[in-house]
Request: fold
Amino acid sequence: MYFENTNLENLTADQELIENIMKKNGLECDGAWDYERMTFDRRFDTREGTYYLRVFAYAQSGDVGAHDAVLTLMKPVLGKHYYPHGVEYGADEVYPAHLVKKCDEILNKVRLDLEAFAIESPSNKKAMEPVNA
Reply:
């Protein structure tokens, strides 16, 4: 299940800042990275099963392994874990309402924390530039 209208997609910031904000909100990377991408996860164990809130990011520049990347966030997703196959994000999955609400709250808090540092998406930046008449 992809989360729409979170205002997180396409936000770009320094890797260290994003890592700190994600960790503050319970989203950890824990080895889910390569030199161009990172995945921030938060695990939820509920009576309905095990779920993961995931926020994917990719490097606009720099090297994730060297901790000097500038990351761009992608659309957050909620998936259900099936042992031993992995996480499924399909539209036919059933997600508990209480979990979706909790994930919305977490993503909103991440957005607010990023806004505190005046992080804007490239599309918003263009809209805010003055027009020379």
Notes: Residues 11 and 120 are 6 Å apart (CA to CA). The first strand starts at residue 12 and ends at 14.
